[in-house]
């Protein structure tokens, strides 16, 4: 399966999970809000019913217009609250239906009690009216007690409903958390199995190639972008090794055939054949460069994007180990991207046509120094650039060379609080010698033979960043200008890089 397909599937799955989580949270919020609303209304009903009962007691002790009006208003308030509770979703609740019936009968009993009180105040009323008044009092008190009992029962039901809702919400959140954990585990498994593991195999294959081995690529026989790059690099490496052998043979053949003018035609045919082979290798190098720049960058960008999304969206759910794994994946993708850029640069300086012109190296060095200062304005570095230094060469390639050499001097003098970097020219027999000197960490000259080889570094990546390609590109540029380059260095004192053109 292609990595692009995996990334699309992962994006769709993540979107679906997010949609489910949002939908569940919205539904849970609506349910909790409804339960809270019912609980609030029920509490208000209990309080109003209790107040109504207190007002009734006052009225029965001291009948009067003021107590009657208060009771009626409180009765109406209880009715509105019962209506609100019905609208909140308890329309079909039998307990609510019974309360509304008792509430209505309570009003009817109270009206009869008022009428009986008026009759009892009439001096002409018979003794039977007093008995009727007593019955109405009992009836109203009974209705009031029933309402209080039903309101209390209704409150208990609302409270139990709220607890059930919160309990269900807690279980739902637990299920969501478990689902998110499973999703994160799946993402980590896919990244590790489908991307990180084959990338590690590709890195081991490149390391073997650096050591001169061209063969198995640690199991990267897969039909995806990484497999395409591994096969392209393997083919390029094999062809390059063949061409290197052919180049040595060609040099020996040229020496022999120059001694015999009679064999000039055969030499020309051999040269044409070797040139054709070199053109074929150049085309394969261009195909490899295209494969690297298009097919490998897409999964690297996907890795970096998913790492960033994982940290931003689920950072609070990852423990320290998980966050460290994500940081390592992101750092590996960035380092692989830098390695790709450096490989493409090395390939470009090897194949580009040299267009010679007069180049002011002093002005070019000043420009590069200013760029380095702007990149790290807090550093205290003094540049001593000799003015008027010029040379004949390709301006673009010479700029790349100076950027690498001055950049290395800047990088390896970072531990010096007040560093000095010099650029100038000195006489060295019949040819001028250019130099770049720094007072940085330096290196042991016993390892100087590794200095201009690809992927060879004299300092660890944890101490100084780099891929080991820059000085290999510089050496190629110098050789293409007919010159040579060498270094003098002392540990903890500094390094001087010298070259001719």
Provide a count of the helices.
Answer: 10
Largest sheet: 5 strands, mixed
Briefly note the structural class of the backbone. alpha+beta
Q: List unreliable stretches of 5+ residues.
A: none
Using the coordinates shown, work out and report the CATH topology of the largest domain. A middle domain of Talin 1
- End-to-end distance: 51 Å
Secondary-structure element order, N to C: HHHHHHHEHEEHEEHEE
- Under the CATH scheme, the architecture of the largest domain is Up-down Bundle
Q: What is the helix fraction of residues, given as a range?
A: over 70%
| Widest beta sheet: strand line-up | 2-4-5-7-6
Rg over C-alpha atoms, rounded to the nearest angstrom: 45 Å
Number of domains: 3
Question: How many beta-strand runs?
Answer: 7
Q: Overall pLDDT, averaged? A: 77
Percent of residues in beta strands: 5-15%
The backbone outline, from C-alpha atoms, is elongated
Break the fold down into its secondary structure elements and pairings.
Elements: H1 3-61, H2 65-90, H3 94-120, H4 127-210, H5 225-258, H6 264-314, H7 320-351, E1 357-360, H8 361-375, E2 380-385, E3 390-393, H9 395-412, E4 418-428, E5 431-438, H10 470-480, E6 485-490, E7 494-499
Parallel strand pairs: 2-4
Antiparallel strand pairs: 1-3, 4-5, 5-7, 6-7
Précis, in short:
This protein is α+β, with helices and mostly antiparallel strands and 501 residues long.
């Amino acid at each position: 399966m292609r990595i692009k397909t995996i990334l699309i599937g992962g994006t769709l799955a993540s979107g679906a999970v997010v949609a489910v989580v949002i939908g569940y949270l919205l539904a849970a919020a609506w349910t909790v809000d409804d339960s809270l609303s019912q609980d609030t209304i029920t509490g208000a009903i209990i309080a109003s019913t209790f107040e109504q009962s207190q007002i009734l007691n006052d009225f029965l002790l001291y009948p009067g217009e003021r107590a009657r009006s208060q009771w009626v208003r409180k009765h109406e308030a209880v009715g509105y609250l019962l209506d609100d509770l019905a609208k909140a979703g308890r329309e079909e609740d039998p307990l609510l239906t019974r309360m509304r019936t008792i509430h209505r009968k309570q009003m009817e009993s109270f009206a009869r009690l008022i009428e009986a009180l008026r009759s009892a105040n009439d001096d002409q009323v018979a003794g039977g009216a007093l008995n009727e008044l007593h019955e109405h009092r009992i009836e109203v008190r009974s209705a009031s007690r029933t309402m209080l009992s039903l309101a209390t029962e209704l409150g208990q039901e609302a409270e139990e409903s709220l607890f059930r809702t919160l309990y269900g919400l807690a279980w739902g959140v637990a299920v969501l958390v478990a689902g998110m954990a499973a999703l994160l585990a799946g993402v980590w498994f896919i990244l590790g199995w489908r991307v990180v593991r084959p990338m590690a195999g590709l890195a081991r294959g490149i390391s073997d190639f650096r050591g001169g081995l061209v063969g198995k690529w640690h199991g990267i026989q897969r039909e995806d972008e990484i497999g395409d790059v591994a096969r392209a690099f393997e083919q390029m490496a094999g062809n390059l090794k063949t061409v290197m052998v052919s180049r040595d043979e060609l040099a020996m053949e040229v020496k022999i055939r120059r001694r015999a003018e009679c064999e000039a035609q055969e030499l020309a045919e051999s040269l044409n054949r070797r040139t054709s082979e070199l053109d074929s290798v150049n085309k394969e190098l261009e195909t490899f460069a295209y494969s690297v720049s298009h097919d490998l960058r897409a999964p690297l960008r996907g890795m970096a994007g998913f790492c960033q999304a994982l940290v931003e969206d689920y950072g609070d759910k990852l423990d320290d180990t998980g966050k460290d794994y994500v940081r390592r994946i992101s750092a590996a993708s960035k380092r692989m991207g830098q390695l790709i850029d450096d490989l493409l640069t090395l390939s470009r300086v090897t194949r580009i046509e040299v267009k010679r012109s007069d180049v002011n190296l002093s002005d070019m060095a000043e420009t590069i120094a200013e760029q380095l200062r702007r990149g790290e304005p807090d550093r205290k570095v003094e540049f001593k650039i000799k003015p008027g230094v010029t040379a004949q060469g390709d301006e673009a390639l010479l700029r790349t060379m100076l950027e690498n050499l001055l950049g290395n001097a800047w990088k390896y003098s970072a531990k010096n609080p007040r560093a000095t970097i010099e650029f100038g020219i000195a006489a060295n027999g019949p040819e001028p010698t250019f130099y770049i000197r720094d007072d940085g960490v330096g290196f042991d000259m016993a390892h100087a033979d590794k200095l201009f080889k690809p992927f060879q570094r004299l300092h660890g990546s944890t101490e100084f960043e780099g891929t080991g390609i820059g000085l290999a590109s510089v050496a190629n540029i110098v050789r293409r200008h007919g010159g040579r380059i060498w270094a003098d260095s002392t540990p903890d004192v500094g390094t001087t890089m010298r070259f001719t053109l």
